[in-house]
């Protein structure tokens, strides 16, 4: 159903929607009761910037590491990305102020970090705190 032969795919009202970020935004728009994108245009753009960061940097680099594709360079890139996140999260509960699609986009990586040969410990205290708080959320914990 997805021309890229990937998941997820959502079939709704006879239409097919694919690509994680697009599916997430579609669901946010269809079911706006739980606000996962801020009403403010600037804040919403910030959420989208972080979603892009995860989808174009973190996730692809994690795949390179897991499949030993130039793993040494991928590990260096990952270190830079994780340092960026750790700095950004200093003094913040969530990456874009309120819980949002940006936080949700990080969860799959965090729960699979061992598969990707990534350690998030005391070397990234803000990132570790954030990740642990995200997976402790009842809606997330119920799926793990």
The proportion of strand residues reads 5-15%
Shape category? globular
Characterize the largest beta sheet: strand count, sense, and whether it forms a barrel.
Answer: 2 strands, antiparallel
- Strand order in the largest sheet: 1-2
Using only CA atoms, what is the Rg? Answer: 16 Å
> Residue share in helices?
55-70%
Describe the structure.
- There is one protein chain.
- This protein has 144 residues and is mainly alpha-helical.
- It is 58% helix and 6% strand.
- The chain has helices at 20-30, 41-66, 71-89, 101-111, 125-136, 138-141, and strands at residues 9-12, 15-18.
- Strands 1-2 form a two-stranded antiparallel sheet.
- Helix 3 (71-89) crosses helix 5 (125-136).
- The longest helix has 26 residues, at 41-66.
- It is globular and about 45 Å long.
Question: Any key phrases for this structure?
Answer:
single chain, 144 residues, mainly alpha, two-stranded antiparallel ribbon, 6 helices, 6% strand
How is the secondary structure organized here?
Layout: E1 9-12, E2 15-18, H1 20-30, H2 41-66, H3 71-89, H4 101-111, H5 125-136, H6 138-141
Antiparallel strand pairs: 1-2
Helix pairs in contact: 2-3, 2-4, 3-5
Overview in brief:
The protein has 144 residues and is mainly alpha-helical. The protein has helices spanning 20-30, 41-66, 71-89, 101-111, 125-136, 138-141; strands at residues 9-12, 15-18.
